[in-house]
Amino acid sequence: MDTNALSAFADGEPGVGEILRRQQRAALPVIVLGEFRYGIAGSRNRKAYEAWLDTHLFGFELLAITAETTIPYAALRGTLKRLGRPIPSNDAWIAALAISTGCRSSVATSTSTRCRTCAESLGRGPKPAI
Questions:
Q1: What percent of the chain has pLDDT over 90?
Q2: Is residue 92 a contact partner of residue 116, using CB atoms and an 8 Å limit?
Q3: What is the DSSP letter of 125?
Q4: What distance in Å separates the CA atoms of residue 93 and residue 69, rounded to the nearest whole number?
Q5: Cα-based distances in Å from 103 to 48, 52, 61
Q6: How many Å apart are CA 36 and CA 43, to the nearest integer?
Q7: What's residue 10's pLDDT?
Q8: How far is CA 79 from CA 55, 73, 120, in A?
Q9: Prediction pTM value
Q10: How many DSSP H helices and E strands does the chain contain?
Q11: 23 phi and psi, to 5 degrees?
């Protein structure tokens, strides 16, 4: 799940919640957790988002970057650069974590959709849930 999807879930977007209920596992890259915490730190609703996170974080499997993650990360970034479609580093890390941990579906929005598409072209990507 990318940061946009987590934010939508925290805001009560029903579509994201429905997708998560259909999954066998709900994984959250630590990069997304960091981006989300950064975003809520400056929010005027910080306390409400922190409370939401305290209540819901236990339901996610946290995915951390390992040496294995660097292999699909480098392949993704290289492929996208050659295609003339570079993406932000954090989006590539999120996609690389999905690939290296064997996630078979993903909730993806914005630029991470390009990561997913590229990962699928490498034969290792998650299958889209939306």
A1: 54
A2: no
A3: P
A4: 8
A5: 30, 25, 11
A6: 11
A7: 94
A8: 38, 10, 12
A9: 0.78
A10: 7, 4
A11: -90, 150
